[in-house]
Design goal:
Rossmann fold; 15 strands; 3 domains; Phosphorylase Kinase, domain 1; 18% strand; 16 helices; single chain; alpha/beta; 461 residues; 6-stranded antiparallel β-sheet; 5-stranded parallel β-sheet; Transferase(Phosphotransferase), domain 1
Length: 461
Protein backbone atom coordinates (compact mmCIF):
# COMPACT_ATOMS: atom_id res chain seq x y z
CA UNK A 1 0.00 0.00 0.00
CA UNK A 2 1.53 3.35 -1.07
CA UNK A 3 2.00 6.10 1.49
CA UNK A 4 -0.22 9.17 1.30
CA UNK A 5 1.56 12.33 0.09
CA UNK A 6 2.66 14.90 2.67
CA UNK A 7 2.94 18.64 1.90
CA UNK A 8 3.97 21.18 4.51
CA UNK A 9 3.48 18.62 7.26
CA UNK A 10 -0.10 17.89 6.19
CA UNK A 11 -1.06 14.38 5.06
CA UNK A 12 -3.28 14.51 2.00
CA UNK A 13 -6.42 12.43 1.56
CA UNK A 14 -8.82 12.00 -1.34
CA UNK A 15 -9.92 14.76 -3.70
CA UNK A 16 -13.08 16.46 -2.47
CA UNK A 17 -13.70 18.90 -5.30
CA UNK A 18 -12.25 19.92 -8.66
CA UNK A 19 -13.12 23.48 -9.56
CA UNK A 20 -12.36 25.60 -12.58
CA UNK A 21 -9.06 26.85 -11.16
CA UNK A 22 -8.20 24.69 -8.13
CA UNK A 23 -8.43 21.26 -6.50
CA UNK A 24 -9.51 20.57 -2.90
CA UNK A 25 -8.24 17.54 -0.99
CA UNK A 26 -8.85 16.27 2.51
CA UNK A 27 -5.90 16.87 4.84
CA UNK A 28 -4.86 15.90 8.37
CA UNK A 29 -2.24 17.22 10.78
CA UNK A 30 -1.34 16.00 14.27
CA UNK A 31 -1.53 19.53 15.69
CA UNK A 32 -4.91 20.42 14.14
CA UNK A 33 -7.93 18.20 14.83
CA UNK A 34 -9.69 19.30 11.67
CA UNK A 35 -11.53 18.57 9.53
CA UNK A 36 -9.16 20.27 7.08
CA UNK A 37 -8.91 20.90 3.36
CA UNK A 38 -5.82 21.60 1.27
CA UNK A 39 -6.37 23.75 -1.80
CA UNK A 40 -3.96 23.68 -4.76
CA UNK A 41 -4.17 25.40 -8.15
CA UNK A 42 -4.75 23.32 -11.26
CA UNK A 43 -1.46 23.05 -13.12
CA UNK A 44 -2.05 20.57 -15.94
CA UNK A 45 -0.92 21.29 -19.49
CA UNK A 46 -2.86 24.19 -20.98
CA UNK A 47 -4.21 25.63 -17.71
CA UNK A 48 -4.87 29.37 -17.62
CA UNK A 49 -1.98 31.23 -15.86
CA UNK A 50 -4.66 33.33 -14.16
CA UNK A 51 -5.37 30.28 -11.98
CA UNK A 52 -1.90 30.57 -10.46
CA UNK A 53 -2.03 34.35 -10.03
CA UNK A 54 -5.47 34.22 -8.41
CA UNK A 55 -4.21 31.49 -6.10
CA UNK A 56 -1.39 33.80 -5.01
CA UNK A 57 -4.01 36.41 -4.18
CA UNK A 58 -5.89 33.94 -2.00
CA UNK A 59 -2.63 32.95 -0.27
CA UNK A 60 -2.16 36.59 0.72
CA UNK A 61 -5.77 37.38 1.66
CA UNK A 62 -7.20 34.32 3.42
CA UNK A 63 -4.65 34.14 6.29
CA UNK A 64 -5.50 37.76 7.19
CA UNK A 65 -9.26 37.18 7.51
CA UNK A 66 -11.04 36.37 10.75
CA UNK A 67 -14.58 35.81 11.95
CA UNK A 68 -17.40 33.30 11.51
CA UNK A 69 -18.04 34.23 7.86
CA UNK A 70 -14.70 32.98 6.46
CA UNK A 71 -12.91 29.62 6.81
CA UNK A 72 -10.03 29.61 9.25
CA UNK A 73 -6.65 29.36 7.52
CA UNK A 74 -4.06 27.05 9.10
CA UNK A 75 -1.17 27.62 6.73
CA UNK A 76 0.04 28.32 3.20
CA UNK A 77 3.16 27.54 1.21
CA UNK A 78 4.74 27.49 -2.24
CA UNK A 79 6.68 24.21 -2.41
CA UNK A 80 6.60 21.68 -3.94
CA UNK A 81 3.40 23.28 -5.29
CA UNK A 82 1.40 26.30 -4.06
CA UNK A 83 -1.03 25.29 -1.28
CA UNK A 84 -3.41 26.60 1.37
CA UNK A 85 -4.83 24.62 4.29
CA UNK A 86 -8.15 25.76 5.75
CA UNK A 87 -10.95 24.42 7.89
CA UNK A 88 -13.57 22.34 6.14
CA UNK A 89 -16.98 23.99 6.57
CA UNK A 90 -19.52 21.38 7.59
CA UNK A 91 -22.52 22.84 5.77
CA UNK A 92 -22.92 22.69 2.01
CA UNK A 93 -22.97 25.53 -0.50
CA UNK A 94 -26.02 27.23 -1.96
CA UNK A 95 -25.38 25.60 -5.34
CA UNK A 96 -27.82 22.67 -4.86
CA UNK A 97 -30.65 25.18 -4.35
CA UNK A 98 -30.43 26.06 -8.05
CA UNK A 99 -32.13 22.75 -8.82
CA UNK A 100 -35.26 23.90 -6.98
CA UNK A 101 -35.93 27.42 -8.22
CA UNK A 102 -37.77 29.70 -7.79
CA UNK A 103 -37.76 30.08 -4.00
CA UNK A 104 -40.32 31.84 -1.81
CA UNK A 105 -39.82 35.59 -1.29
CA UNK A 106 -39.48 35.13 2.49
CA UNK A 107 -36.72 32.55 2.01
CA UNK A 108 -34.90 34.76 -0.52
CA UNK A 109 -34.96 37.72 1.88
CA UNK A 110 -33.65 35.58 4.76
CA UNK A 111 -30.93 34.07 2.60
CA UNK A 112 -29.94 37.48 1.22
CA UNK A 113 -29.68 38.94 4.71
CA UNK A 114 -27.33 36.13 5.77
CA UNK A 115 -25.06 36.69 2.77
CA UNK A 116 -25.13 40.46 3.41
CA UNK A 117 -23.95 39.78 6.98
CA UNK A 118 -21.02 37.79 5.59
CA UNK A 119 -20.17 40.56 3.12
CA UNK A 120 -20.32 43.15 5.89
CA UNK A 121 -17.81 41.14 7.91
CA UNK A 122 -15.52 40.91 4.88
CA UNK A 123 -15.82 44.58 3.87
CA UNK A 124 -15.01 45.71 7.42
CA UNK A 125 -11.66 43.95 6.99
CA UNK A 126 -10.90 45.91 3.83
CA UNK A 127 -11.60 43.09 1.37
CA UNK A 128 -14.04 42.98 -1.56
CA UNK A 129 -14.91 39.46 -2.70
CA UNK A 130 -15.69 40.13 -6.41
CA UNK A 131 -16.94 36.57 -7.09
CA UNK A 132 -20.12 36.24 -5.03
CA UNK A 133 -22.16 33.33 -6.40
CA UNK A 134 -23.97 30.26 -4.99
CA UNK A 135 -20.97 27.92 -5.13
CA UNK A 136 -18.85 30.40 -3.12
CA UNK A 137 -21.36 30.69 -0.26
CA UNK A 138 -21.49 27.93 2.37
CA UNK A 139 -23.44 27.47 5.59
CA UNK A 140 -21.56 26.89 8.82
CA UNK A 141 -23.15 23.98 10.66
CA UNK A 142 -26.95 23.83 10.65
CA UNK A 143 -29.38 25.17 8.09
CA UNK A 144 -29.71 28.34 10.15
CA UNK A 145 -25.96 28.74 10.68
CA UNK A 146 -24.04 31.81 9.47
CA UNK A 147 -23.07 32.13 5.83
CA UNK A 148 -19.41 31.58 4.97
CA UNK A 149 -17.68 33.08 1.95
CA UNK A 150 -14.98 31.04 0.22
CA UNK A 151 -12.64 31.39 -2.78
CA UNK A 152 -10.81 34.71 -2.54
CA UNK A 153 -8.73 34.31 -5.70
CA UNK A 154 -10.42 37.22 -7.47
CA UNK A 155 -10.76 39.37 -4.35
CA UNK A 156 -9.25 42.80 -3.78
CA UNK A 157 -7.70 43.76 -0.44
CA UNK A 158 -7.20 47.49 0.13
CA UNK A 159 -3.86 47.04 1.93
CA UNK A 160 -2.38 44.44 -0.42
CA UNK A 161 -1.08 44.62 -4.01
CA UNK A 162 -3.68 43.55 -6.58
CA UNK A 163 -1.89 40.94 -8.69
CA UNK A 164 -4.93 40.30 -10.91
CA UNK A 165 -5.18 43.95 -11.90
CA UNK A 166 -1.43 44.30 -12.36
CA UNK A 167 -1.00 41.32 -14.68
CA UNK A 168 -4.24 41.06 -16.66
CA UNK A 169 -6.14 43.64 -18.70
CA UNK A 170 -9.41 41.73 -19.13
CA UNK A 171 -11.80 41.57 -16.16
CA UNK A 172 -12.10 38.26 -14.31
CA UNK A 173 -15.26 37.08 -12.60
CA UNK A 174 -18.41 35.03 -13.12
CA UNK A 175 -20.26 36.70 -16.00
CA UNK A 176 -23.88 36.68 -14.70
CA UNK A 177 -22.85 38.19 -11.35
CA UNK A 178 -20.29 40.83 -12.40
CA UNK A 179 -21.10 44.44 -11.54
CA UNK A 180 -20.89 47.06 -14.32
CA UNK A 181 -17.80 48.67 -12.80
CA UNK A 182 -16.15 45.25 -12.54
CA UNK A 183 -16.86 44.66 -16.23
CA UNK A 184 -15.06 47.93 -16.94
CA UNK A 185 -11.99 46.77 -15.00
CA UNK A 186 -12.65 48.69 -11.78
CA UNK A 187 -11.91 46.54 -8.74
CA UNK A 188 -12.14 47.35 -5.06
CA UNK A 189 -15.63 48.86 -4.60
CA UNK A 190 -17.70 46.98 -1.96
CA UNK A 191 -20.81 47.93 -3.93
CA UNK A 192 -19.73 45.39 -6.56
CA UNK A 193 -20.51 42.60 -4.08
CA UNK A 194 -23.94 44.10 -3.41
CA UNK A 195 -24.67 43.98 -7.14
CA UNK A 196 -23.70 40.29 -7.23
CA UNK A 197 -25.94 39.57 -4.24
CA UNK A 198 -28.76 41.37 -6.05
CA UNK A 199 -28.25 39.06 -9.03
CA UNK A 200 -28.31 36.04 -6.71
CA UNK A 201 -31.54 37.12 -4.99
CA UNK A 202 -33.21 37.91 -8.34
CA UNK A 203 -32.18 34.46 -9.65
CA UNK A 204 -33.42 32.62 -6.56
CA UNK A 205 -36.71 34.54 -6.57
CA UNK A 206 -37.56 34.26 -10.28
CA UNK A 207 -35.53 31.30 -11.56
CA UNK A 208 -34.04 33.61 -14.20
CA UNK A 209 -30.79 35.59 -14.25
CA UNK A 210 -31.45 39.33 -14.63
CA UNK A 211 -28.85 39.76 -17.39
CA UNK A 212 -28.68 36.20 -18.73
CA UNK A 213 -25.34 34.42 -19.06
CA UNK A 214 -23.30 36.62 -21.44
CA UNK A 215 -20.16 35.19 -23.01
CA UNK A 216 -18.83 38.26 -24.84
CA UNK A 217 -17.60 41.59 -23.55
CA UNK A 218 -20.17 43.45 -25.65
CA UNK A 219 -22.96 41.48 -23.97
CA UNK A 220 -21.48 42.05 -20.51
CA UNK A 221 -21.45 45.80 -21.07
CA UNK A 222 -25.20 45.87 -21.71
CA UNK A 223 -25.84 45.91 -17.96
CA UNK A 224 -24.51 49.48 -17.92
CA UNK A 225 -27.65 50.71 -19.69
CA UNK A 226 -30.14 47.83 -20.01
CA UNK A 227 -32.47 47.22 -17.04
CA UNK A 228 -33.75 43.71 -16.13
CA UNK A 229 -37.39 42.62 -16.17
CA UNK A 230 -38.84 43.62 -12.76
CA UNK A 231 -39.20 40.55 -10.47
CA UNK A 232 -42.92 41.23 -9.89
CA UNK A 233 -43.53 40.82 -13.63
CA UNK A 234 -42.25 37.24 -13.31
CA UNK A 235 -43.35 36.44 -9.73
CA UNK A 236 -46.53 38.43 -8.92
CA UNK A 237 -46.40 37.38 -5.25
CA UNK A 238 -43.08 39.19 -4.83
CA UNK A 239 -43.76 42.03 -2.36
CA UNK A 240 -43.00 45.55 -3.63
CA UNK A 241 -40.45 46.13 -0.84
CA UNK A 242 -38.36 43.12 -1.95
CA UNK A 243 -38.40 44.28 -5.57
CA UNK A 244 -37.28 47.72 -4.37
CA UNK A 245 -34.33 46.17 -2.53
CA UNK A 246 -33.29 43.85 -5.37
CA UNK A 247 -33.52 46.47 -8.11
CA UNK A 248 -31.58 48.90 -5.93
CA UNK A 249 -28.78 46.32 -5.72
CA UNK A 250 -28.82 46.09 -9.51
CA UNK A 251 -28.42 49.82 -10.16
CA UNK A 252 -25.62 50.40 -12.74
CA UNK A 253 -24.13 53.25 -10.69
CA UNK A 254 -22.50 51.98 -7.47
CA UNK A 255 -23.52 55.07 -5.48
CA UNK A 256 -27.21 54.31 -6.14
CA UNK A 257 -26.97 50.93 -4.41
CA UNK A 258 -27.12 50.49 -0.63
CA UNK A 259 -24.50 52.41 1.33
CA UNK A 260 -23.12 49.18 2.80
CA UNK A 261 -23.80 45.47 3.18
CA UNK A 262 -25.03 46.19 6.72
CA UNK A 263 -27.68 48.56 5.33
CA UNK A 264 -28.77 45.90 2.86
CA UNK A 265 -29.04 43.27 5.60
CA UNK A 266 -31.16 45.66 7.69
CA UNK A 267 -33.59 46.31 4.83
CA UNK A 268 -33.98 42.59 4.13
CA UNK A 269 -34.88 41.97 7.80
CA UNK A 270 -37.09 45.05 8.25
CA UNK A 271 -39.47 45.35 5.26
CA UNK A 272 -41.48 48.04 7.04
CA UNK A 273 -38.43 50.32 7.01
CA UNK A 274 -37.87 50.07 3.23
CA UNK A 275 -38.79 53.32 1.49
CA UNK A 276 -40.76 52.45 -1.64
CA UNK A 277 -39.98 54.38 -4.80
CA UNK A 278 -40.49 53.96 -8.55
CA UNK A 279 -38.46 50.73 -8.50
CA UNK A 280 -41.06 49.02 -6.29
CA UNK A 281 -43.92 49.86 -8.69
CA UNK A 282 -42.28 48.75 -11.96
CA UNK A 283 -43.98 45.92 -13.80
CA UNK A 284 -42.08 46.08 -17.09
CA UNK A 285 -38.70 47.04 -18.44
CA UNK A 286 -37.97 50.58 -19.59
CA UNK A 287 -38.87 51.31 -23.20
CA UNK A 288 -36.32 51.00 -25.95
CA UNK A 289 -36.05 54.80 -26.36
CA UNK A 290 -34.97 55.17 -22.72
CA UNK A 291 -32.49 52.33 -23.05
CA UNK A 292 -31.04 53.87 -26.21
CA UNK A 293 -30.76 57.19 -24.39
CA UNK A 294 -28.84 55.57 -21.55
CA UNK A 295 -26.65 53.78 -24.07
CA UNK A 296 -25.52 56.77 -26.09
CA UNK A 297 -26.12 59.90 -24.01
CA UNK A 298 -23.20 60.49 -21.62
CA UNK A 299 -25.51 62.39 -19.25
CA UNK A 300 -27.40 59.18 -18.49
CA UNK A 301 -24.43 56.82 -18.18
CA UNK A 302 -23.13 55.79 -14.74
CA UNK A 303 -20.02 57.62 -13.58
CA UNK A 304 -17.72 54.72 -12.85
CA UNK A 305 -14.70 55.92 -10.92
CA UNK A 306 -12.04 54.14 -8.92
CA UNK A 307 -12.29 54.82 -5.21
CA UNK A 308 -9.20 56.58 -3.91
CA UNK A 309 -8.99 54.39 -0.81
CA UNK A 310 -8.80 51.25 -2.97
CA UNK A 311 -5.76 52.44 -4.91
CA UNK A 312 -2.09 52.08 -3.92
CA UNK A 313 -0.87 55.10 -1.98
CA UNK A 314 1.57 57.16 -3.99
CA UNK A 315 3.83 57.77 -0.97
CA UNK A 316 4.77 54.11 -1.42
CA UNK A 317 6.52 54.04 -4.84
CA UNK A 318 6.74 50.89 -6.91
CA UNK A 319 10.16 49.56 -7.83
CA UNK A 320 10.21 46.77 -10.44
CA UNK A 321 13.26 44.55 -10.99
CA UNK A 322 13.33 42.33 -14.08
CA UNK A 323 15.27 39.06 -13.89
CA UNK A 324 16.19 36.81 -16.78
CA UNK A 325 16.00 33.51 -14.90
CA UNK A 326 17.14 31.50 -17.94
CA UNK A 327 20.39 33.44 -18.26
CA UNK A 328 21.55 35.10 -15.06
CA UNK A 329 24.90 34.65 -13.33
CA UNK A 330 25.41 34.55 -9.57
CA UNK A 331 27.29 37.83 -9.86
CA UNK A 332 24.43 39.55 -11.71
CA UNK A 333 21.86 38.10 -9.32
CA UNK A 334 23.76 39.50 -6.35
CA UNK A 335 24.35 42.84 -8.08
CA UNK A 336 20.65 43.29 -8.82
CA UNK A 337 19.73 42.43 -5.24
CA UNK A 338 22.37 44.85 -3.93
CA UNK A 339 20.99 47.62 -6.15
CA UNK A 340 17.45 47.01 -4.91
CA UNK A 341 18.70 47.11 -1.32
CA UNK A 342 20.50 50.42 -1.81
CA UNK A 343 17.42 52.03 -3.37
CA UNK A 344 15.22 50.68 -0.55
CA UNK A 345 17.53 52.37 1.93
CA UNK A 346 16.68 55.68 0.25
CA UNK A 347 12.96 54.92 -0.32
CA UNK A 348 12.04 52.73 2.68
CA UNK A 349 8.31 52.65 1.86
CA UNK A 350 8.75 51.33 -1.67
CA UNK A 351 7.14 48.13 -2.88
CA UNK A 352 9.30 45.76 -4.93
CA UNK A 353 7.78 43.89 -7.87
CA UNK A 354 10.01 41.05 -9.14
CA UNK A 355 9.38 40.41 -12.84
CA UNK A 356 10.24 37.57 -15.17
CA UNK A 357 9.02 37.16 -18.74
CA UNK A 358 8.06 33.68 -19.89
CA UNK A 359 8.45 33.91 -23.63
CA UNK A 360 5.54 32.57 -25.66
CA UNK A 361 5.42 31.56 -29.31
CA UNK A 362 3.83 33.83 -31.86
CA UNK A 363 2.40 31.11 -34.11
CA UNK A 364 2.73 27.64 -32.61
CA UNK A 365 1.07 26.46 -29.34
CA UNK A 366 2.96 26.87 -26.08
CA UNK A 367 3.68 24.11 -23.57
CA UNK A 368 2.83 25.08 -19.98
CA UNK A 369 4.80 22.14 -18.51
CA UNK A 370 8.55 21.54 -18.70
CA UNK A 371 10.23 18.20 -19.51
CA UNK A 372 9.86 17.06 -15.90
CA UNK A 373 6.12 17.76 -15.97
CA UNK A 374 6.39 20.86 -13.77
CA UNK A 375 4.40 24.00 -14.46
CA UNK A 376 6.78 26.57 -15.98
CA UNK A 377 4.90 29.52 -14.51
CA UNK A 378 5.02 28.09 -10.98
CA UNK A 379 8.70 27.16 -11.25
CA UNK A 380 9.63 30.68 -12.25
CA UNK A 381 7.59 32.11 -9.39
CA UNK A 382 9.54 29.88 -7.01
CA UNK A 383 12.84 31.09 -8.44
CA UNK A 384 11.74 34.71 -8.07
CA UNK A 385 10.82 34.02 -4.44
CA UNK A 386 14.19 32.41 -3.76
CA UNK A 387 15.96 35.41 -5.31
CA UNK A 388 13.97 37.94 -3.27
CA UNK A 389 14.07 36.09 0.07
CA UNK A 390 17.27 37.87 1.29
CA UNK A 391 15.49 41.23 0.91
CA UNK A 392 13.36 40.19 3.93
CA UNK A 393 10.44 42.43 2.94
CA UNK A 394 6.92 41.91 4.31
CA UNK A 395 4.41 40.34 1.93
CA UNK A 396 2.51 43.56 1.23
CA UNK A 397 5.74 45.16 -0.03
CA UNK A 398 7.04 42.30 -2.19
CA UNK A 399 5.28 40.73 -5.18
CA UNK A 400 6.34 38.28 -7.86
CA UNK A 401 5.09 38.32 -11.45
CA UNK A 402 5.66 35.94 -14.35
CA UNK A 403 4.54 37.79 -17.48
CA UNK A 404 3.72 35.56 -20.45
CA UNK A 405 4.43 37.40 -23.69
CA UNK A 406 6.11 37.16 -27.09
CA UNK A 407 8.32 40.20 -26.40
CA UNK A 408 10.18 40.56 -23.11
CA UNK A 409 10.72 44.29 -23.52
CA UNK A 410 7.10 44.82 -24.53
CA UNK A 411 5.82 42.93 -21.48
CA UNK A 412 8.06 44.89 -19.07
CA UNK A 413 7.11 48.22 -20.60
CA UNK A 414 3.40 47.39 -20.48
CA UNK A 415 3.66 46.35 -16.83
CA UNK A 416 5.54 49.55 -15.96
CA UNK A 417 3.03 51.74 -17.80
CA UNK A 418 -0.17 50.09 -16.58
CA UNK A 419 0.96 49.92 -12.95
CA UNK A 420 2.63 53.33 -12.74
CA UNK A 421 6.02 51.93 -11.81
CA UNK A 422 8.39 54.59 -10.45
CA UNK A 423 11.73 52.84 -11.00
CA UNK A 424 12.80 49.94 -13.21
CA UNK A 425 15.96 47.90 -12.55
CA UNK A 426 17.41 45.58 -15.20
CA UNK A 427 20.63 43.67 -15.70
CA UNK A 428 22.83 44.47 -18.70
CA UNK A 429 23.51 41.71 -21.20
CA UNK A 430 27.03 40.66 -22.09
CA UNK A 431 28.27 42.37 -25.22
CA UNK A 432 28.22 40.63 -28.58
CA UNK A 433 27.88 41.30 -32.30
CA UNK A 434 24.08 40.82 -32.20
CA UNK A 435 23.72 43.28 -29.33
CA UNK A 436 25.96 45.85 -30.99
CA UNK A 437 23.99 45.70 -34.25
CA UNK A 438 20.42 45.26 -33.01
CA UNK A 439 20.63 46.73 -29.52
CA UNK A 440 19.60 45.00 -26.28
CA UNK A 441 16.39 44.50 -24.36
CA UNK A 442 17.52 46.69 -21.40
CA UNK A 443 18.45 49.46 -23.85
CA UNK A 444 15.02 49.25 -25.51
CA UNK A 445 13.27 49.36 -22.14
CA UNK A 446 15.39 52.30 -20.97
CA UNK A 447 14.58 54.20 -24.16
CA UNK A 448 10.80 53.78 -23.92
CA UNK A 449 10.14 53.39 -20.18
CA UNK A 450 7.71 55.87 -18.53
CA UNK A 451 9.89 56.01 -15.40
CA UNK A 452 13.46 56.05 -14.12
CA UNK A 453 15.57 53.08 -15.22
CA UNK A 454 18.73 51.64 -13.66
CA UNK A 455 20.74 49.18 -15.75
CA UNK A 456 23.10 47.10 -13.64
CA UNK A 457 26.37 45.89 -15.16
CA UNK A 458 28.77 43.35 -13.67
CA UNK A 459 32.42 44.20 -14.27
CA UNK A 460 34.71 41.64 -15.85
CA UNK A 461 37.97 41.31 -13.90
Amino acid sequence: MSELPIIGGYTLGPVVHRGGMAVLREATHPDHPGPLLMKMPKMAEGEDPAAIVSFEMEQMILPRLTGPHVPRCYGAGHEPVPWIVMERISGGSLLPLLKRLPRAPEEVALLGAGVADALDGLHRQGVVHLDVKPSNILRRGSENGPMVLVDFGLSRAALLPDLMEEEFRLPYGTAPYMAPEQVMGIRGDPASDLFALGVLMYFFLTGKRPFGDPQRMADLKQRLWSDPTPPRAIVPECPPWLQEVILRCLEPAPERRHASAAHLAFDLRHPEAVALGPRAAKLKRDGWTKRIQRRFNPEFQPRLRRKAEALPQRDAPIMAVALDIDDISKEMSAALRDTVGRILAIRPNARVACLNVLRTNLLRPDNTLDREGRNKHVQRLLELRHWSAPLALPEHRLTHHVLEAVSASGAILEYATQNRVDHLILGAKAGGITQRVLGSMPTEVARDAPCSVTIVRVRDF
